[in-house]
Amino acid sequence: MELVAIIDDELSNCGFKKRQTTWYFKTARGVLVLDLQKSAYGHQFYINLASAPIEVETIGYPTPKEYKCPLRLRLDSAYPQLSDELKLVLDLENLSIGDEGRTAVIRRVVSEYSVPFLMKLDGMQKIKRSLHDGSLDRAFVALALGKFTS
């Protein structure tokens, strides 16, 4: 089971383009980013989500590093109810779940949670709505976004 290949399969079907372990979805309103981050301490991974709207200057645009985006958060912060399940399937050292089960959960999480959440961050209007409805309470939001979202 190759984690990157599973995620790539799901995201490429949605129009995302891969660059190393980061996927980009470009729109007229900016770029949406999904980054697969490996832990420095083992074979655990994290799914990071980010948005770089065109109104905010972002280093590296149109393919910025996730950590350079003005809006970013981990998938388990966006969906705290998925935290335990994500921790299990993204810990490749944990053998309590088989490859088939792990693959199914990762596909579901990417297609049913990651992509729809990113689409809610496509452009300033949607970001503003997400800020006001509480969807981004656990997100890093750069000060540069403030003048566009208040």
Helical residues, percent: 25-40%
**Global geometry:** globular
Biggest sheet, spatial arrangement of strands: 1-2-3-4-5-6
Q: Terminal Cα separation, in Å?
A: 45 Å
Q: Let me know the largest β-sheet.
A: 6 strands, antiparallel
Number of strands: 6
Q: Any idea what the radius of gyration is?
A: 15 Å
Query: What is the overall number of helices?
Result: 6
The proportion of strand residues reads: 15-25%
N-to-C order of helices and strands? HEEEEEHHHHEH
Supply the number of structural domains: 1
Structural class: alpha+beta
Low-confidence stretches: none
What does this structure look like?
The chain has 150 residues and is of the alpha+beta class. The protein has one domain (3-143). The protein is 39% helix and 22% strand. It has 6 helices and 6 strands; from the N terminus they run H-E-E-E-E-E-H-H-H-H-E-H. The protein has a 6-stranded antiparallel sheet with strand order 1-2-3-4-5-6. Strand 3 and strand 4 (45-53) form a beta hairpin.
Q: What are the main properties of this structure?
A:
6 helices, 6-stranded antiparallel sheet, 22% strand, 150 residues, alpha+beta, 6 strands
TL;DR?
The chain has about 150 residues and is α+β, with helices and mostly antiparallel strands. The chain is built from six helices and six strands, in the order H-E-E-E-E-E-H-H-H-H-E-H.
